[in-house]
Design a protein that fits this description.
By secondary structure, the chain is α/β, with parallel strands linked by helices. It is built from 10 helices and 12 strands. It is 42% helix and 19% strand. Helix 1 links the parallel strand 1 and strand 2. The longest helix is centred in the last third of the chain and has 16 residues.
Length: 270
C-alpha cells in the first residue's frame, strides 16, 4: 500500500467558530493539506464521517450539541472508523478534561492558538499512525518480540496497540491492570512491557517494581506511558523503580520508535 503524505490527507475539520475554522483551514493549507471538509457541529461531523470517511479528524472541544469526546468515542467505538486519527484543538487547560482525551487515544492535542510547528508535528504524528512502517532491528526480528500491554482504558490500549502493530509488533498481550499483568508475567515470557501509570488494583509503579526486583523478570525493558508531567514528584519516584523509558500520552509513534530501537537492540546484545 502506497504511503500517504500530508498533501494526500482528507481532513474533516470540526469547529463551531467561523473565525477559528478559517484560521485553522488557512494553517492546514499552508501545510499543503489539499482536501479539507469544514463542519460546525458534531452531528454534521458524524454525518460527514458516515458519508465518506476521513484520513484525519481535527476537532475543537465544545459544541452546542456536545463535546469532542462524544465524537471521539463515536469514532473509536466503530469498527469501520476506529482507525481514523483524532486531533484535538482547544484552549481548554484543565488537566482533568484533557486527561479524558489522552486516555481515549487522541493522536495529538493542540492548544489555541498554536504555532505552525506544532501543527506540522501533529500532522506527521497522525501520518505515522496511518502509514505502517516496520521497525528494523539489528539482532531482533520485530515479529517475534513478545509485548505485554497494560492499561485500564480499552480505548488507550487500542490506540497503543495500533501504534505498536504499525511498527511490526504482532505478539501483543493485553492486561487491564497491574494485577492481571502480574498473573501473565508469572506464566509467560515477555520481551517488553508497555504500561500505564494510573491504574486500579495495582498501578504501573507497583508493577514496575515487581518486574525490576524479581530475578526472573529484571531484564525486561519497561516503557511507562503517562499523562503526568515528566518533572512531577510521581515521575521522579517512577524513575527510581527502574523504568527504562517514560512516554507521554498522546502516544507518539516517532518517539516510541526511537525508544523501541534503543531498548530492544540494547537488550538483544546483553
Amino acid at each position: 500500500m502506497e504511503k500517504l503524505s500530508i498533501s494526500d490527507l482528507h481532513i474533516i475539520l470540526v469547529e463551531p467558530s467561523d473565525t477559528q475554522r478559517k484560521i485553522i483551514t488557512t494553517l492546514l493549507l499552508k501545510e499543503k493539506v489539499r482536501e479539507i471538509d469544514p463542519v460546525s457541529t458534531l452531528s454534521e461531523a458524524m454525518s460527514a464521517v458516515k458519508a465518506h470517511g476521513a484520513d484525519l479528524i481535527v476537532s475543537a472541544m465544545y459544541f452546542e450539541d456536545g463535546t469532542a469526546l462524544d465524537l471521539l468515542k463515536f469514532i473509536k467505538e466503530s469498527d469501520e472508523f476506529k482507525s481514523i486519527p483524532f486531533m484535538l484543538v482547544s484552549s481548554e487547560n484543565r488537566l482533568s478534561k484533557l486527561e479524558e482525551f489522552k486516555q481515549a487515544g487522541v493522536a495529538a492535542i493542540l492548544p489555541k492558538p498554536f504555532e505552525p510547528l506544532h501543527l506540522s508535528r501533529a500532522l506527521n504524528a497522525s501520518l505515522d499512525l496511518i502509514n505502517h512502517d516496520e521497525l528494523e532491528l539489528e539482532l531482533f526480528d520485530i515479529h517475534d518480540v513478545r509485548v505485554l500491554l497494560v492499561d485500564d482504558s480499552k480505548l488507550a490500549r487500542n490506540h497503543i496497540r495500533r501504534v505498536l502493530e504499525g511498527m511490526g509488533l504482532q505478539r501483543i498481550k493485553e492486561a487491564e491492570n497491574g494485577a492481571m499483568a502480574l498473573t501473565f508475567i508469572k506464566d509467560e515470557a515477555f520481551d517488553l512491557v508497555v504500561t500505564d501509570y494510573n491504574m486500579p488494583e495495582m498501578d504501573g509503579r507497583e508493577l514496575s517494581e515487581f518486574i525490576r526486583f524479581n530475578p526472573e523478570t529484571t531484564h525486561i525493558p519497561i516503557i511507562m506511558v503517562t499523562s503526568e508531567a515528566a518533572d512531577s514528584a510521581h515521575m521522579a519516584n517512577i524513575q527510581q523503580t527502574g523504568v527504562n523509558a517514560l512516554c507521554d500520552k498522546p502516544f507518539e509513534p516517532t518517539e516510541v520508535r526511537q525508544m523501541l530501537a534503543a531498548l530492544l537492540d540494547r537488550k538483544s546484545v546483553v
